[in-house]
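Researcher: Good morning. I'm working through a list of sequences from a screen, and I'd like to move beyond sequence-only analysis. For each chain I'm collecting a predicted structure so we can compare shapes side by side. This is the next one on the list. No need for commentary yet; just the structure.
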Amino acid sequence: MDKMEEYIRSLISMENSGLIAFFLLGVLALAGINRYANYRVIAYFTSYEMLNNNNYAFAVRRLGLMIGFGLSIGSALSYPTFTLETLMAGLGSLFLIGGMMLASFELSEYFLTPDKNNNIEIEEGSLNVALLEASMFISTGLIIAGSFSGEGSWESSIVFFILGNVVIVGLTPFYTKSITGRSGAVADNLGSSIM
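Model: Good morning. C-alpha cells for this chain:
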C-alpha cells in the first residue's frame, strides 16, 4: 500500500498539477477564443449550423485559428519545469497569447481586406477571405511561437510579436499590388489569396 500512496502523491505533486492546470486553462482559453470567433463571424448562427450548411470558408477560417493557437500554446508549454513561478509565468503568457490571437483576428480584417466586411464574406462562403484569415492566424501563431521560445522576458515577447505583425502587414501592399491589388483577394481570385 505504501507504493500506491507514493504513486498517487507523485501524480498530484505541484509539478504535475501545475501542468494539468496549465493544460486545462489552455483548453478554456481556446474555448473562449472559439466563442469570440463564433460571435464575430455571425452572432445568430452556431458553428455547427455553419458547418452543417457546408460553409467551407467558415471551416478554413476556424482551421487557421486552431493551428495558430496550437503553435503558440506549444511554445508556451516549452518551460523546462513547472514550479509555482513558471506556472504563474505560463498563465500570464497564456492570456497574452489569447490577446495576441484576438488582435490578429482584428488586424486581418482592418489591414488585409479594408474594403470588405470579412464576417459577411465568410457567411456567404468566400473561400478567398477565409484563406487570407487562416494564413494570418497561422503566421501569427508562428510569430508568437518564435517570440515566446526565446530567453527574453515577456516584454520582449510583446515587442517581437508587434514587430512581426508590422512586417507582415507592412509587406502586404508589395505582394498584393503585383497581382491584382488588395481587392483581388476578395473578388473571386483564389490565386491572389494563396499568394
